[in-house]
Structure formats: structure tokens, C-alpha cells
From TrEMBL, chain A:
Keywords: Cell membrane, Membrane, Transmembrane, Transmembrane helix, Transport
Topological type in the membrane: Multi-pass membrane protein
Name the UniProt record assigns to this protein: Sugar ABC transporter permease
Entry GO terms, CC: plasma membrane
Automatic annotation (TrEMBL), chain B:
Annotated protein name in UniProt: Sugar ABC transporter permease
Matches recorded under Pfam families: BPD_transp_1 (PF00528)
Bilayer disposition of the protein: Multi-pass membrane protein
Alphabetized InterPro entries for the sequence: MetI-like, MetI-like_sf, UgpAE/MalFG_permease
Record domain ABC transmembrane type-1: where: 95-311
Length: 293, 320
């Protein structure tokens, strides 16, 4: 007995598409809005009312931003911390994950607990700052790298992956006379490439997006990252941006909105570029991570 | 094998052999321990040294001089800083802001990914589905700096939101979203949801993928429409995941996050926009009241770990 298609199914479908269209608009339109503002003439932007298309098209904001040596310096620092930080973190994390995945190591359970505990309890900002200070890391480039060497959450993802690799590999390599370091470097590290790609992408995004360490732990202008620079500009713009009726010429002198938006777009662009690459790893990262949550 | 053999011999002999055995195993694993050195140095320096440094919450630490020597010679004041915090007018305000804005965030950001996952599941058009997914995941990957910039721009007096409300005739005068303290919690809750809803829907989609398709076929035969199927098959299958995520969110009410509050707050709305994390930052790093800020931070850490362990225990017993 076949039933005619329910007409209420059509309404249902309509609601589903409507919800998803709303989700699409809510996430996409804000980006379009800042793009439009950044491509609009800076002086004209002050009048407001730009939605999805620039009213007076101009690349002036981008020229101003890219003509600023501080922005280039910030871009260099951001790239440097990503390029230096990601491989170092990746190596440390994988090495730790490998050792903790070994069933035969004495004290393995305790070690795992020592690392996991740090996910739930921390000394907090102030003692952390004091430690950075006493180690002489404040206002150095290494404050972006060394404190980020290990990430326990990513370590668990890598360890879960290693646990699923056959352990006979280890035994046969041992019979061939390899020591543990060699087994890790020559057997396990190459096999981990898929998970390393995932975690590496996440680490790169973290390094690129980090702002607080540069903002609070460094004072030299040469160590400000793009995101930290953006925070400074945001702070300056704060009061003028949020109060209405402020003198437009003062506002413009402090930080025209279009220029702020241009920097925002420049800081977002690399994320957009690697985005298609990263996307196929998302689900993986999410589900791998949830195994041990 | 070796251990089994040892258990059959004399006790002292066994102990000796076990000791030898342990030593032999330790020695044969020397490379493994060597490989642990970087991570162990890291965890001691950046995770446990700060915990040890929390001692400064119980002394009157004065900045200047070498940190650790200053640290041990500072006057011990016991729980004075905690009492000071409790008696200051800030305690109640911070707790209210922290708890209520967290609650508001949960209220919106908990159901949002479930609804998105349910809707995505009903879409057969691959291109449409992929496009919506790609765009919805994106905010998760941009920094809070960018997200805050976007929200401040959208909600500014001449921004897009005010423009839309005006053209719809809902308001005549621009709403000053960042000047009026009553809006802040909703703004943070929306921003949190905007950033995470797409990405968090992945976990629900994974749960949906695990449903046996025969269930749907059987219900179609019984004459159930799409709506009924969603209500009686898809939704119940999400329940375990949803409960776990809700528990985690509730256990984390104290951990509001720092970035979104710090980046979007301003002088005129501090009454609602100040939370424990931003307060700690302001008193500690900006004003140099290190011991006081450390005490406030410790208070938060302790409350949140107690919450996490009790909620975890209670629910584990109740559910699993």
C-alpha cells in the first residue's frame, strides 16, 4: 500500500532549508560586511550604512595598511611564530604521545595522569606570568614558542592514533636491533603523518590566532603579532567606535573603520586560504578528540 | 612469564629478582625516558611551577627583585586576600556576571548545533549541504580578535544591525549596544554561539551517521512523516551526546573564557562585562596587585575543579 507523498513533508523541507539559509546568512554576511567596509573609501565609511557592497570603492585602506612598516613587522612575527612553533610543538607532542602509548614503560600511568591533570587545574595567569618572568621569556620571541611546545589535548589525539597502529611493528624493529628512539623516528613518525597533518593544521591556526601572549607578555613593537596589533587598534577605536555622534574627524584621525577592517581581512585571509585544506580534517579532529573526553 | 616464575620461588629471592627485573626494564627503556625529557621539563616549568607559584596568594608579595627569593621572604597572610575579595563589593558582581552570562551562553549555544545537525541531516542536495557546512564551521577558526572586531562593527551605532532594524522600522534611533550594560550578556552569548555552533554540529552529525537506516525504513512503512521520524528516531539518538555536552558545559560555568569579554568590554559597561578572568588580568598585570589577583584566580580554579568533579561523579552514577 503506497501512500501519496505527505504535503506536510514539503512544509518540513521548507523549514529545514529556511533554518540552514539563516545559519548561512548569520555566519557569512558578517564577513561580507567587513569586506565591503574595508573596500570602501575610509572617509565615506564614517557615514556608516554600508552593508554588503562598498558604496565608494577604494583600495586606499589596503594601501595605507600595507604601506605601514609596523603591519609588515607584525606579519613577519606572526609568520615566524607559526613556521618555527608548529614543527617544534608537533615533534614534542608526538614524542610524548609515543612514549605514553607504550604499554611497557614503568610509570606510564602516573605520567599520563601528570599531563592530564594540567587540563583541569592550572596555576592561573599571575603565577604563570611570574614563571615566564623568572625564566627570562618575557619580551622575547621564545615566549611564543616554548610555552606552546606541548598541548595535552592534541597529545591525546596523537596517542589515540598511535594506539591503533599494530604493535608488532615495534617488536620486529627491535629484533632488527633498533632502539626506541630509532623505532619512534623511523617506524612510528612516518606512520603518524595523517594525524600529524591534522594536529599540525590546528597548531598552525592556534599560532596564527594567538594574541594574548604578544599583547601581554611582550612590550617591544617588533614582537607584536598581527592579532595583537589589531587589539591595540581596537582599543584605540573602542570609545570612538561605540559612542554615536562623536566628532567624525576625530574618529577618522584615530583609526578609520575601513583601515581596521582591512587589517581584519588581512589577518583572516590566511585562515581562508588554508581552510579548504584543513576542512577534510575537521571531523577527524573532532571525533578523535572526543574519544577520550 | 618471568614474573610468574619468580612468584614460585622464595620471598627474598623474589624481591631481589623483581628489583633486578625493574632495573633491567628501566635500563632497557632508557631511550624512552630520554624522549620524555622535553615534555617533562615543559610540564614542570609551565604547568606545575605556576601551581606551586599559587603560594603567592597566601603571602603579601611585593613586585620587584628576583621572583623566587622575593616569593619566599614575603610576609605570610593566610587567607587574608580571599577574605578581602569576599568583602569587596566586586565578589558578588563578578560571580553574578560569570554565572549568568555562562548560563545565557549555554541557553543558546547548546541547542543551536543540535538544530543545525538535524536540519543538515534532512538535506539531500550535496552542494547546498557542503556550502552551508563550510561557511558555518568558519567562525570557529578565526581568532576572537577578529570575531570581536566583527561584532563591534556590526553592532556599532551606524553598523549593519542598527541599519537593518531601522529599515524594518523597528527603531528610530540607533541602539548603542556597547553602551547599555543590559545587552552585554546576550552579545557574548550570541558571539559564543556564532563561533561554535557550526563546528559543534559535527559531533551530532557523527552520532546521526551511526543510526541504523532500517529504523527509518520501518517507520516509513508505518506511515511516519519526516517530522515524526526526526522527533522519534533522530532526536532520541542524539540524547547521550547531548547530555554529555550539557554536563561539560554546566561543569565549566566558571570558565567563561577571557578573550570575548576582554575584547568586547569597555568602561561604561563594566558592571556586567567584568568576569573573574578579566578582573584577574586587570588587577594582576595592569595594576600590579599580584597576590590579590593570584588569590582571585585560585578561587576560580578551585571552584571550577570542585564543580567539574562533583558533577562528573553525580552524573556518572546517575546515568552510566
Amino acid at each position: 500500500m503506497r501512500q501519496a507523498p505527505h504535503w506536510d513533508d514539503f512544509i518540513f523541507k521548507g523549514i529545514v532549508y529556511l533554518i540552514l539559509l539563516a545559519v548561512f546568512c548569520v555566519t557569512f554576511l558578517p564577513f561580507l560586511n567587513i569586506l565591503a567596509i574595508s573596500l570602501n573609501d575610509a572617509t565615506d565609511s564614517v557615514r556608516g550604512g554600508i552593508s554588503f557592497w562598498p558604496r565608494q570603492f577604494s583600495l586606499q585602506s589596503y594601501e595605507t595598511v600595507l604601506g605601514d612598516s609596523q603591519i609588515w613587522s607584525a606579519l613577519r612575527v606572526t609568520i615566524a611564530r607559526t613556521v618555527v612553533g608548529v614543527p617544534l610543538s608537533l615533534f614534542t607532542i608526538t614524542m610524548l604521545a609515543y612514549v605514553l602509548s607504550r604499554k611497557d614503560i614503568i610509570g606510564g600511568k602516573t605520567l599520563t595522569f601528570i599531563f592530564l591533570f594540567t587540563m583541569y587545574f592550572s596555576g592561573g595567569l599571575i603565577p604563570y606570568y611570574m614563571v615566564l618572568k623568572s625564566l627570562g621569556l618575557l619580551d622575547t620571541f621564545w615566549v611564543f614558542i616554548i610555552p606552546n611546545l606541548v598541548n595535552v589535548f592534541y597529545m591525546i589525539i596523537v596517542r589515540t592514533f598511535i594506539n591503533e597502529l599494530p604493535h608488532e611493528l615495534e617488536e620486529s624493529a627491535k629484533i632488527d636491533g633498533a632502539n626506541d628512539l630509532q623505532i619512534f623516528l623511523k617506524v612510528y613518525l612516518p606512520l603518524c603523518l595523517p594525524v600529524l597533518a591534522t594536529v599540525g593544521m590546528f597548531l598552525a591556526i592556534d599560532q596564527w590566532n594567538a594574541w594574548f601572549d604578544s599583547y601581554a607578555f611582550t612590550s617591544s613593537m617588533e614582537l607584536k603579532t598581527l592579532q595583537a596589533k589589531l587589539v591595540q587598534i581596537l582599543n584605540q577605536a573602542d570609545t570612538s567606535q561605540m559612542t554615536s555622534g562623536a566628532n567624525a574627524s576625530i574618529r577618522q584621525a584615530i583609526s578609520p573603520q575601513s583601515i581596521r577592517m582591512a587589517i581584519t581581512i588581512i589577518a583572516t585571509l590566511p585562515i581562508l586560504l588554508v581552510y579548504p585544506l584543513v576542512q577534510r580534517f575537521f571531523a577527524e579532529g573532532m571525533t578523535l578528540g572526543s574519544v577520550k573526553m | 612469564m618471568r614474573v610468574e616464575l619468580a612468584s614460585s620461588s622464595f620471598k627474598n629471592k623474589q624481591a631481589k629478582r623483581d628489583k633486578g627485573e625493574t632495573w633491567r626494564r628501566l635500563k632497557s627503556a632508557k631511550y624512552l625516558y630520554l624522549m620524555l625529557i622535553p615534555a617533562c621539563v615543559w610540564v614542570i616549568a609551565f604547568a606545575y611551577a605556576p601551581m606551586f607559584g599559587l603560594y603567592m596568594a597566601f603571602v603579601n608579595y611585593q613586585p620587584g627583585g628576583e621572583f623566587w627569593s622575593q616569593f619566599f621572604t614575603s610576609k605570610f597572610v593566610g587567607l587574608d586576600w580571599f577574605v578581602y575579595f569576599y568583602n569587596s563589593g566586586d565578589f558578588l558582581r563578578l560571580m553574578r556576571n560569570t554565572l549568568l552570562s555562562s548560563a545565557m551562553t549555554i541557553l543558546i549555544s547548546f541547542p543551536a548545533p543540535i538544530i543545525i545537525a538535524l536540519a543538515l541531516n534532512e538535506v539531500k542536495n550535496k552542494f547546498f549541504k557542503k556550502t552551508v557546512q563550510s561557511v558555518a564551521y568558519l567562525p570557529y577558526f578565526v581568532s576572537w580578535v577578529i570575531a570581536a572586531n566583527i561584532f563591534i562593527t556590526l553592532l556599532s551605532s551606524d553598523g549593519m544591525v542598527n541599519g537593518m532594524l531601522k529599515s524594518l522600522g523597528l527603531i528610530d534611533e540607533s541602539i548603542l549596544f556597547f553602551q547599555e550594560k543590559n545587552y552585554f550578556w546576550s552579545i557574548v552569548a550570541s558571539a559564543n554561539t556564532w563561533k561554535s555552533m557550526g563546528y559543534n554540529s559535527i559531533i551530532y552529525l557523527a552520532a546521526i551517521a551511526g543510526i541504523n537506516p532500517e529504523q527509518y525504513e520501518a517507520s516509513t512503512v508505518d506511515g511516519a512523516n519526516k517530522w515524526k521520524q526526526m522527533l522519534h528516531i533522530t532526536l532520541p539518538s542524539l540524547k547521550p551526546t547531548a547530555i554529555i555536552l550539557l554536563i561539560l558545559a554546566v561543569a565549566n560555568v566558571m570558565n567563561t573564557g577571557f578573550d570575548q569579554y576582554y575584547l568586547m568590554q569597555n568602561e561604561s559597561i563594566m558592571a556586567t562585562a567584568d568576569v573573574i578572568d578579566t578582573y584577574t588580568y586587570r588587577y594582576g598585570l595592569s595594576q600590579g596587585m599580584f597576590s590579590y589577583a593570584a588569590a582571585v584566580g585560585l578561587f576560580k580554579s578551585v571552584v571550577s575543579i570542585i564543580l567539574l568533579t562533583t558533577i562528573n561523579k553525580v552524573f556518572k552514577r546517575a546515568l552510566f
